[in-house]
């Protein structure tokens, strides 16, 4: 089981190694540098994350065949590779958004926690074993609980952190119980061994379906799908906005990677059952997310409900349980992470100046800062699925996967929901562009680093909507690693 | 040797007790204890199965779970203390400053 | 570069050059108007060049550009544009109306001039793309893309209830078109191509599925047309939109719906088209009568013109689903006619609104004495709109009625005389509400003191209207060149219906 360590094995966990080194560097810097000069902590993280991304992109690329390494703990395949890049990108943009934010800028622990959580996500993307999965999910979640409650002088932030922790701990316990049952039934914790045991018919279907429900509770919490979405609006609203952005993008994407991998790899023999369960969850997520979003007045809450709805759309790809379906999920999250980062970026910049997250206070933004308004416009239209933006292609792909897998009724429900969704995105854009505001003449400046991050996001968003092939190839490679 | 099914039943009872506690009790500390109960139900299963398979894997996993649970509780207690400072209560129904 | 210099690509994407230029101007700069006008005029020039290259005798797609675009695993998406007799006139109509509409904004739009022109040129790109795309995916992208600029044109520069109107417009159209997206995906996945000529050649869609696909496409187009009972967004959008927006909305955007029926429903689903022709005929006739009846009591001139559009476009749909040579060619010509006359009517309403800032009929009366030139031009346009022989409206409506009378609808159980007869009632009603409006505005004594000092049309306003009037007379007196452009393509299309017998709906 523990043979000698090969270069391959090391390259497979290169992103994790790089992140660990970075965490150590930030830790030590925090200790040695005196308080006034701790601004370099954020920059250290940014540069470190950039280097990690480059190292990952060039050296950790898997071959055509998926491998299971490190004693069956980790999978080295395209899905892991692409998802790691997504998480690193999310962490990078999140760090950029904290740059001019004085309450955390000088605190080393903030960046250490953020990086640790990213480390957990990269492991989630690659986990091929239940125990590895459990550990990586907890490595992701526990720092996020702290980060959500990071602003100890803000009641809403601590409350958000605590609620997140309560829901998280409870659903993880349920999931772990499911894991222990699976271990008992299959005699192993390796996902692919479990899959083989299930395929051999060792396990009674009812017990398996029961275990699948328990496991789905844990994953459902991470992706914030209904009916496990209750935490999302409060946590999104209360948490510091950059953390909200991180939660709604990277953390959700990590949940989806795990969900797709486990459902398709381990539970393929009870596919019809979990498809039905997830279909119900998808319908509720989309409908409830969109309908409740209609009445929101706080932009972070609105984005929270919108993200519940988007979990529903992405579930269509998982439910299809086909190569196109898995590819569409990956594509969805490539686009969704970029789009939501842009949307939250605007929220962060605006709320830093006007000190409010109320949608009504966005009136006149198009005159105060045409650039921010344009970013908002493109991001929201992409969320609504209007061509030629990435969100359109992403929606087309998940709907196509559903149509191809003969879930036309789900696609129709999805399509109807897209119209409801469009309505509240338009309402926000209406306020931004059409409603006259109080301080129209006062310019609203965007700090340089944030501006760069927003421009990068928007360019990627347009690229994903027009130059489709390279990204889709990534998604397709990831999907074929599962089948 | 006690058959595995006994452990399964015991674990199920523990898990159900824990889940009920989470759903019914309003005191944050007691909710935490209930979550611990749920985790320990899973631990018990791991150990029992490991013994019946005559492998050490499951028993080792329990150590991981215990470590993680400890970390979780540490964070949880820290947050409870912060909340207690401002609200002077750890009743989770008091946590309702956000609505919508 | 070679790719961009293809005539059709040039005509679609040239306005983007203007957009780029506009981005370098300041927000209030009036130079923006000139940049945009010149861009639109050059685009018109390019479209005339396309017309020169166009071979009217050839019924097939011409000047096509087909490039692979997205060719990964199971997706066979191409970039394909082309023009044939079904679309050439609509392309010309678009490039012709755009500079006219831009010219009409010279005084009317003072706020955020640059942004207005920018959205207008973007809208032109979208519209031209819709008429030229021959690939379902590409078509859908252009189709949706037109919504965004129009949303802002109505939402920023519209009337008092502009936000409501803009959002209603967006949601209605999106609601229809997203169902079409599902149908497009079904076709692309199951037929292996999104390229229209391929799809027509492959055919063989089972009858029951064809039926649902037809409905999904028809939902998108019927909302856009708009056909009764899906019309309720139209009056709001029209009344709230700025004049130039109304001109383009009525003149071109609504044609995207009828063009969609023509290009996609009739060509992709000939079987279902024959079967559902009576249903579409009934809806069209209801639209004709309903639009006319509702127009009559309107007190707001713009609203009257808006409702009359529902009636006029009912004729177009009736002609299309007659499924014969006269019906379809009449419908295509009537699309152009409606673009010209209704566009002109909205401009005329705009002129008086700029002077008085009201459109209520009761505020006016006796304008003939104050503004004689304006009155005469309005009379001509109104007569054209109601279908007086010698003017363009007559040619279109008469050909459609001929088609409906002898049409393929006769294959159905409802008979054709009924459709033609009821539609003819619509013509009479049109005369009633148009003349009623004319009388209220222009005849009799000047009742309102505020109207006494109104100036007659300026040179710029004449320059806007005269090209439209030239076309009104040209099509009315000598429509042959226009029919010659349409004819061969329509003949090819109708041939595809010849073997299909009417069957009851499954």
Model description:
The complex is a heterotrimer of chains A (483), B (100) and C (506). Helix content of chain A is 77%, strand content 1%. By secondary structure, chain A is an all-alpha fold. In chain A, helix 4 packs antiparallel against helix 12. The two termini of chain A are 25 Å apart. The model of chain A has no long low-confidence stretch (mean pLDDT 88). By secondary structure, chain B is mainly alpha-helical. Chain B is 78% helix and 0% strand. Chain B has helices spanning 4-24, 28-53, 57-87. Chain C is mainly alpha-helical. Chain C contains 20 helices and 2 strands. In chain C, helix 5 packs antiparallel against helix 7 (162-191). The radius of gyration of chain C is 22 Å and the shape is globular. In chain C, 61% of the residues are buried. Mean pLDDT of chain C is 85; it is low at 409-414. Chain A binds chain B through residues 131, 134-135, 138, 142, 145-146, 149, 152, 155-156, 158-163, 165-166, 169-170, 173-174, 176-177, 179-181, 183-184, 187-189, 233-234, 237-238, 295-298, 301, and chain B through 4, 8, 11, 15, 18-19, 22, 28, 31-32, 35, 38-39, 41-43, 45-46, 48-49, 53, 57-58, 61, 64-65, 68, 71-72, 75-76, 78-80, 82-83, 86-87, 92, 95, 97-98, 100.
């Amino acid at each position: 089981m523990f043979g000698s360590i090969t270069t391959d094995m090391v390259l497979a966990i290169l992103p994790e190694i790089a992140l660990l080194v970075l965490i150590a560097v930030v830790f030590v810097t925090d200790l040695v540098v005196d308080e006034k000069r701790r601004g370099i902590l954020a920059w250290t993280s940014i540069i470190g994350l950039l280097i990690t991304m480059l190292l990952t992109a060039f050296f950790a690329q898997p071959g055509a065949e998926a491998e299971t390494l490190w004693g069956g703990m980790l999978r080295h395949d395209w899905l892991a590779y692409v998802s790691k890049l997504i998480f690193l990108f999310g962490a990078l943009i999140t760090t950029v958004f904290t740059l001019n934010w004085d309450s955390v800028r000088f605190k080393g622990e903030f960046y250490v926690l953020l990086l640790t959580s990213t480390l957990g996500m990269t492991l989630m993307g690659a986990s091929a074993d239940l125990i590895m999965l459990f550990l990586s999910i907890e490595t992701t979640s526990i720092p996020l609980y702290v980060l959500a409650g990071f602003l100890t002088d803000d009641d809403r932030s601590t409350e958000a952190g605590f609620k997140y922790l309560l829901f998280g701990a409870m659903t993880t316990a349920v999931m772990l119980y499911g894991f222990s049952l699976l271990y008992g039934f299959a005699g192993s914790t390796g996902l692919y061994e479990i899959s083989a045991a299930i395929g051999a018919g060792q396990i009674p279907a009812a017990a398996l379906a029961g275990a699948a429900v328990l496991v789905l509770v844990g994953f459902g919490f991470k992706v914030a799908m209904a009916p496990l979405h209750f935490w999302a609006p409060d946590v999104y609203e209360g948490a510091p906005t950059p953390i909200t952005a991180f939660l709604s993008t990277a953390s959700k994407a990590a949940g989806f990677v795990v969900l797709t991998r486990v459902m398709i790899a381990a539970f393929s023999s009870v596919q019809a059952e979990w498809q039905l369960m997830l279909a119900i969850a998808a319908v509720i997520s989309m409908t409830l997310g969109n309908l409740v979003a209609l009445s929101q007045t706080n932009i972070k809450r609105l984005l929270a409900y919108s993200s519940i709805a988007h979990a529903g759309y992405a579930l269509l790809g998982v439910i299809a349980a086909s190569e196109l379906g898995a590819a569409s999920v990956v594509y969805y999250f490539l686009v969704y992470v970029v789009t939501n980062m842009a949307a939250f970026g605007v929220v962060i910049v605006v709320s830093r100046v006007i000190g409010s997250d109320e949608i009504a206070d966005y009136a006149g933004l198009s005159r105060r800062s045409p650039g921010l308004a344009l970013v908002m416009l493109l991001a929201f239209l992409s969320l609504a699925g209007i061509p030629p933006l990435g969100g359109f292609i992403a929606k087309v792909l998940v709907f196509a996967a559903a149509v191809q897998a003969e879930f036309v009724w789900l696609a129709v429900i999805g399509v109807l929901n897209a119209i409801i969704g469009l309505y509240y995105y338009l309402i926000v854009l209406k306020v931004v562009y059409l409603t006259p505001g109080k301080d129209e003449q006062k310019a609203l400046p965007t700090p340089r680093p944030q501006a760069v991050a927003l421009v990068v996001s928007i360019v990627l968003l347009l690229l994903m909507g027009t130059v489709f092939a390279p990204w889709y190839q990534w998604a397709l490679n990831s999907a074929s690693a599962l089948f | 040797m006690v058959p595995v099914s006994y452990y399964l039943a015991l674990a199920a009872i523990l898990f159900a007790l824990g889940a009920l506690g989470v759903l019914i009790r309003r005191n944050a500390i007691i909710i935490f204890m209930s979550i611990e109960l749920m985790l320990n139900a899973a631990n018990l299963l791991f150990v029992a199965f490991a013994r019946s398979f005559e492998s050490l894997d499951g028993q080792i996993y329990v150590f991981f779970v215990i470590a993680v649970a400890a970390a979780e509780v540490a964070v949880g207690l820290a947050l409870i203390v912060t909340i207690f400072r401002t609200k002077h209560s750890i009743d989770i129904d008091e946590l309702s400053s956000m609505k919508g | 570069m070679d790719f961009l210099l293809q005539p059709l690509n040039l005509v679609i994407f040239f306005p983007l050059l203007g957009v780029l230029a506009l981005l370098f101007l300041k927000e209030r700069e009036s130079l923006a108007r000139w940049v945009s006008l010149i861009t639109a005029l050059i685009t018109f020039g390019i479209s005339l060049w396309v017309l020169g290259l166009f071979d009217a005798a050839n019924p097939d797609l011409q000047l096509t550009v087909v490039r692979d675009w997205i060719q990964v695993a199971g997706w066979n998406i191409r970039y394909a544009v082309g023009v044939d007799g079904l679309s050439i006139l609509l392309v010309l109509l678009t490039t012709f109306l755009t500079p006219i509409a831009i010219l009409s904004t010279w005084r009317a739009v003072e706020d955020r001039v640059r942004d207005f022109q920018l959205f207008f040129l973007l809208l032109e790109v979208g519209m031209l793309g819709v008429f030229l795309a021959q690939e379902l995916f590409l078509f859908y992208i252009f189709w949706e893309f037109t919504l965004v600029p129009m949303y802002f044109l109505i939402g920023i520069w519209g009337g008092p209830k502009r936000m409501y109107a803009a959002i209603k417009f967006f949601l209605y159209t999106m609601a229809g078109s997203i169902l079409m997206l599902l149908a497009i995906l079904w076709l692309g996945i199951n037929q292996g191509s999104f390229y229209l000529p391929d799809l027509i050649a492959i055919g063989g869609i089972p009858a029951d599925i064809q039926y649902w696909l037809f409905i999904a496409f028809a939902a998108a187009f019927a909302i856009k047309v708009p056909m009764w009972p899906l019309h309720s967004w139209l009056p709001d959008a029209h009344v709230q939109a700025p004049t130039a927006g109304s001109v383009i909305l009525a003149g071109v955007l609504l044609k995207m719906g009828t063009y969609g029926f023509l290009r996609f429903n009739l060509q992709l689903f000939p079987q279902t088209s024959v079967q559902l022709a009576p249903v579409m005929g009934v809806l069209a006739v209801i639209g004709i009568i309903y639009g006319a009846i509702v127009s009559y009591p309107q007190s707001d001139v713009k609203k009257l013109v808006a409702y009359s559009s529902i009636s006029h476009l009912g004729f177009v749909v009736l002609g299309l689903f007659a499924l014969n040579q006269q019906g379809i060619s009449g419908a295509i010509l009537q699309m152009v006619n409606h673009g010209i006359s209704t566009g002109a009517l909205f401009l005329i309403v705009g002129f008086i609104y700029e002077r008085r800032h009201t459109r209520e009929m009761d505020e006016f009366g006796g304008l003939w004495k104050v503004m004689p030139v304006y009155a005469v031009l309005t009379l001509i346009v109104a007569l054209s709109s109601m279908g007086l022989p010698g003017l363009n409206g007559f040619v279109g409506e008469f050909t459609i009625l001929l088609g409906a009378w002898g049409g393929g609808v006769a294959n159905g159980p409802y008979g054709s005389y009924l459709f033609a007869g009821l539609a003819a009632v619509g013509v009479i009603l049109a005369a009633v509400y148009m003349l009623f409006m004319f009388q209220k505005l222009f005849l009799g004594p000047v009742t309102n003191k505020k109207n006494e000092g109104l100036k007659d049309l300026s040179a710029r306003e004449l320059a806007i209207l005269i090209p439209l009037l030239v076309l009104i007379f040209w099509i009315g007196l000598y429509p042959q060149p226009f029919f010659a452009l349409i004819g061969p393509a329509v003949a090819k299309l109708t041939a595809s219906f010849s073997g299909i017998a009417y069957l009851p709906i499954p």
